[in-house]
C-alpha cells in the first residue's frame, strides 16, 4: 500500500513510528511481529530476516525511550567523591586543580561580590551537572550537601538516569524483560556487527548492565580485529562508568587515532576532568579546535573549564567565541549575562537576559535574574513585575525560596526592613536550609537588639554553609560586642579561612590579638 494507513506492511509501519519518535508504538508493533506465527507463503529464510529486523528495531526503540547523552551526564555523587581511590596531589600547583580552591592563576571575583560553592568556585550562570554541587572535604558535608535529584536516595554519578533505568524494564515490558541477559551468548552476537551495536546500546542504556555491555564490546572489537573505532569508544564509556579512568583514557586515545571525532574528544576530556587534570583537558580541546575550527561544543568545553578554574575573563572570551558561531547558545548567553551582573554591569546583563526571553526561554530563573538586573540598573518599574512572574513560574519550593530571598534584598535596598524581614521568613518557610536567609535575618535581629535570636540564626547559617564567610564574620562581631572574645576569635579564624582576602576579618583578628595580649 502506498499510504500510511492500517493496510501498510507492519514492519514498515513500525519503522515509520520509529522515525517519528513514537517509540512505544514502534515497540508494540515489533512485539506483535515477533509473537506472530510464520505464514505458509513466507519462506523460512525471509521469515528469519523479518524477525531479525523486528528484534533489532524493538531493541533500538526501547533504548531511545530511556536514552541519555553520556557527554552531558557528569555529576559526582557521594560515592564518587568520598570513596575515590585515585591518588591526586593534595597541594596542587596554582591553576592546575579543580578540587583545591584558590589555585587559580587569574584572580576571580571576590566572594564578597559573587557567591561561591562549597569547593570555593564561583557560582556559574547556567546549571550544569558538574557545577550543581561542590566537592565536600568530609563525609558529613557530603551528606548534608543540597540534593539536586530531589530524592531521598544518595546522589550517584547518574542519579536521574539510574532512577529511570532501574524501572525501565518494568515500564516498557509488563510481562518481563524483552531480552534475558543472563542467557545471551555474547560471542554469537559479537560476530554480527549490526545486531551487536543495537544490543550493546540496549544493555548499556536500557538495562544499565555495564559489565555485560563491556564483555560484549570487548568480544566485538576483537572480532573486528581492533580496527573499529566505535567499539573502542564504547569500551571507554563502560570503563568510565566503572571508575577505570586510565583504561578509559587508553581506549579513547586509540579511537581518536583511528577516527577523529568531536564526541571522542569530549569523552576523553571528561576523563581528564574526573582525574582533576583541567590543563590537560584544555590542551586537548585546543588541539581539537585545530582540526575542527569553530566547533561550538569544544569552545563551550574550554569556557566551562576556565569558569570552574575561577578564570572568569578567559571563560567570557570563549563564551563570546561560542556566540560568534551560534548566536542562540543559551548557556553562553546566560553565563556572559551572569558575569556582567557580578562585574557591576547590570544594564549589559539585562540585555543578555532579554535576549534569552526573546529566544523563548520562559522560566522562574530567568525572571528572577531579570528582576535583580532591573533593580540594580534602577529600572524599578520592572523589578516587582519580574519577581511576581518568577513566583508564578516557580516549579518547586527551592525556586520560590530564592525569589523571596532576592525580594528581601530589594526590600533592604529600598530601606523597608519590615518587608525584608517578612521576605526572609518566607524564604525559610519554603526552604529550611537556606543559609543566606538565616544570615540576613540574624543581621536584622541584631539591628532590633535581639542578640540571642541573632546568635542562634548565625550558628545555624554557619553550620549549613561552612564555606560562606559572612555568618562566621557576623558571629565574630556579635560575640565581640557581648564580650565573648574566645568565640569571636574562633569565628573570625573560620571567616579568614573561607575568604582570606577579607580586610574586616583581618582587622578584627588583629584587634582581638591586641586584646588577648593586654590580658
Automatic annotation (TrEMBL):
Organism: Asarcornis scutulata
Upper lineage: Eukaryota, Metazoa, Chordata, Craniata, Vertebrata
InterPro entries linked: BBS8, TPR-like_helical_dom_sf, TPR_rpt
Bias kind Polar residues: ranges: 129-140
Alphabetical list of CDD domains matching this protein: TTC8_N (cd21341)
PANTHER family tied to this protein: TETRATRICOPEPTIDE REPEAT PROTEIN 8 (PTHR44177:SF1)
GO terms, biological process: non-motile cilium assembly
Domain of life: Eukaryota
Chain intervals for the UniProt region annotation (Disordered): 98-142
GO CC terms of this entry: BBSome; ciliary basal body; non-motile cilium
The protein, known as: TTC8 protein
Amino acid at each position: 500500500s502506498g499510504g500510511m494507513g492500517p493496510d501498510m506492511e507492519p514492519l514498515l509501519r513500525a519503522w515509520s513510528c520509529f522515525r517519528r519518535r513514537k517509540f512505544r508504538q514502534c515497540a508494540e508493533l515489533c512485539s506483535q511481529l515477533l509473537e506472530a506465527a510464520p505464514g505458509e507463503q513466507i519462506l523460512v529464510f525471509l521469515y528469519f530476516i523479518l524477525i531479525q529486523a523486528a528484534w533489532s528495531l524493538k531493541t533500538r526503540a526501547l533504548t531511545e525511550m530511556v536514552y541519555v547523552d553520556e557527554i552531558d551526564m557528569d555529576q559526582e555523587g557521594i560515592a564518587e567523591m568520598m570513596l575515590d581511590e585515585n591518588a591526586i596531589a593534595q597541594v596542587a600547583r596554582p591553576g592546575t586543580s579543580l578540587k583545591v580552591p584558590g589555585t587559580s592563576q587569574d584572580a576571580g571575583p571576590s566572594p564578597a561580590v559573587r557567591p561561591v560553592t562549597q569547593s570555593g568556585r564561583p557560582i556559574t550562570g547556567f546549571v550544569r551537572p558538574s557545577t550543581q554541587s561542590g566537592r565536600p572535604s568530609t563525609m558529613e558535608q557530603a551528606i548534608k550537601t543540597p540534593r539536586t535529584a530531589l530524592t531521598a536516595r544518595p546522589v550517584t554519578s547518574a542519579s536521574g538516569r539510574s532512577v529511570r533505568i532501574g524501572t525501565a524494564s518494568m515500564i516498557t515490558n509488563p510481562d518481563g524483560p524483552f531480552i534475558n541477559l543472563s542467557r545471551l551468548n555474547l560471542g554469537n552476537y559479537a560476530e554480527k556487527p549490526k545486531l551487536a551495536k543495537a544490543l550493546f546500546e540496549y544493555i548499556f542504556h536500557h538495562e544499565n548492565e555495564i559489565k555485560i555491555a563491556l564483555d560484549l564490546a570487548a568480544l566485538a572489537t576483537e572480532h573486528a580485529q581492533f580496527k573499529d573505532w566505535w567499539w573502542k569508544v564504547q569500551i571507554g564509556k563502560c570503563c568510565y562508568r566503572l571508575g577505570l579512568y586510565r583504561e578509559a583514557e587508553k581506549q579513547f586515545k586509540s579511537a581518536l587515532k583511528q577516527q577523529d571525532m568531536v564526541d571522542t574528544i569530549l569523552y576523553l576530556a571528561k576523563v581528564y576532568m574526573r582525574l582533576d587534570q583541567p590543563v590537560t583537558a584544555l590542551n586537548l580541546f585546543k588541539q581539537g579546535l585545530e582540526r575542527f575550527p569553530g566547533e561550538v561544543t569544544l569552545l563551550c568545553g574550554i569556557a566551562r573549564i576556565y569558569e570552574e578554574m575561577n578564570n572568569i575573563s578567559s571563560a567570557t572570551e570563549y563564551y563570546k567565541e561560542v556566540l560568534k558561531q551560534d548566536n542562540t547558545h543559551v548557556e553562553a548567553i546566560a553565563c556572559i549575562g551572569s558575569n556582567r551582573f557580578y562585574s557591576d554591569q547590570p544594564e549589559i546583563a539585562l540585555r543578555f537576559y532579554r535576549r534569552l526571553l526573546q529566544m523563548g526561554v520562559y522560566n522562574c530563573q530567568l525572571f528572577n535574574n531579570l528582576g535583580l538586573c532591573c533593580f540594580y540598573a534602577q529600572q524599578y518599574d520592572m523589578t516587582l513585575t519580574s519577581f511576581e512572574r518568577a513566583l508564578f513560574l516557580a516549579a518547586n519550593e527551592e525556586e520560590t525560596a530564592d525569589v523571596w530571598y532576592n525580594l528581601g534584598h530589594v526590600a533592604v535596598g529600598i530601606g523597608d526592613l519590615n518587608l525584608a524581614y517578612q521576605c526572609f521568613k518566607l524564604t525559610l518557610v519554603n526552604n529550611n536550609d537556606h543559609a543566606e536567609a538565616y544570615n540576613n535575618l540574624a543581621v536584622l535581629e541584631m539591628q532590633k537588639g535581639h542578640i540571642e535570636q541573632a546568635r542562634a540564626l548565625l550558628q545555624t547559617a554557619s553550620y549549613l554553609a561552612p564555606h560562606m564567610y559572612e555568618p562566621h564574620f557576623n558571629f565574630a562581631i556579635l560575640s565581640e560586642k557581648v564580650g565573648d572574645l574566645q568565640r569571636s576569635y574562633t569565628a573570625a579564624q573560620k571567616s579568614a579561612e573561607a575568604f582570606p582576602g577579607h580586610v574586616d576579618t583581618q582587622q578584627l583578628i588583629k584587634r582581638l590579638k591586641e586584646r588577648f595580649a593586654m590580658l
